[in-house]
Amino acid sequence: MRIALFAALAAALAGPASAVAATPATLPANATIARVPVAGLDEAGAKAKVQATLAPVWEKPITVRVGATDQQISTADLGFAIDYDGMVSQAFETASHHKPVHIKFRKTTSSKTLSRAITKLGKPFYKAPRDARVKFGVRKVVKVHGAYGHGIVPAKLRQKLKDELRKPTPTRLVETAVHRLRPAVSVKQLARKYGTYLSVDRGNFKLRLFKRLRLVKTYPIAVGMAGLETPQGIRHVLNKQVNPTWYVPNSPWAGSLAGQVIPPSDPRDPLKARLLDLGGGFAIHGTAEDWSIGTSASHGCIRMHVSDVIDLYPRVPVGTPVLIH
């Protein structure tokens, strides 16, 4: 009984001392933080010594030389930071467990901050390249050449800055150059981008087919009559139909047929052979009224001879731009 009592008392006295490790006021002998000796120093003293040792090397501003122009930027503005507080806290935590204190260097670089800095550094030297483009006309397509721009290559400067932040050099100098920046779209690429294009010349009753920006064929057409003119502007071929059905619009000109569906076998169907839908109730289609070609005779659609619309149909993919002028 007496032995058990003494054992319980010893356990009670020993428990708090082993459960709670006391944080020392100063760091033990041989303690280092980022290889900086900090033995015998309290928290404030250890942080001050580590900062005084590391900052002149790691946080010294970096000079970015672009061509013959120098710009100086702080490491903080590049997103670089040294975790002084974290390293000191870890040192004292380690010491409280009576373990050797040798804390590794802890630093970080913010990718977003670095990206913003690179954009700012490159802004004075940047001129955007201009892509080649086309001007669609009724009779021809004009190709407008692109132009080179200039500026730094962000990826190259980024890598050089990351290397300098990871391993500082005595000069803290990073050099990069201004490069020519190629347009994303060249004149040669335009022909592939605009493989097919149609223009509708209402005044001369002509439909022109362009392939790879070159005029390849001209067809005679009819266009909308007065009051039901074929609308001007850019449209696109939305879908294509062989022997199309006529869904008669609810318009006064449709008379007793308004709202009806006329199948292609019905002689009353004015949509002959092929149809290229331009949306909004307008289309390019064949007609049985050959006499109307070369006049303003339709209800807004673009009429073609049946042989011509059959010839045009396979040449024009869905999505083709159509300029009506």
Report what the structure shows:
- The protein is of the alpha+beta class.
- It has a domain at 194-324: L,D-transpeptidase catalytic domain-like, CATH 2.40.440.
- The protein is 26% helix and 30% strand.
- The chain contains 7 helices and 25 strands.
- It has helices at 2-19, 43-58, 84-96, 111-122, 154-166, 187-193, 306-312, and strands at residues 32-33, 36-37, 62-66, 69-73, 80-82, 102-103, 107-109, 133-136, 141-144, 149-151, 173-176, 179-181, 196-201, 206-211, 214-220, 223-224, 233-236, 239-242, 246-247, 261-262, 272-279, 282-287, 296-298, 302-305, 321-324.
- The strands form 9 sheets. It has a 5-stranded mixed beta sheet with strand order 15-14-13-25-17, with no helix packed on it.
- α2 (43-58) packs across α3 (84-96).
- The longest helix has 18 residues, at 2-19.
- Residues 1-19 have low confidence and may be disordered.
Rg, Å, rounded: 40 Å
Main CATH class of the domain at 194-324: Mainly Beta
**What is the fold named in CATH at topology level of the domain at 194-324?**
L,D-transpeptidase catalytic domain-like
Number of helices: 7
Percent of residues in beta strands? Answer: 25-35%
Helix content: 25-40%
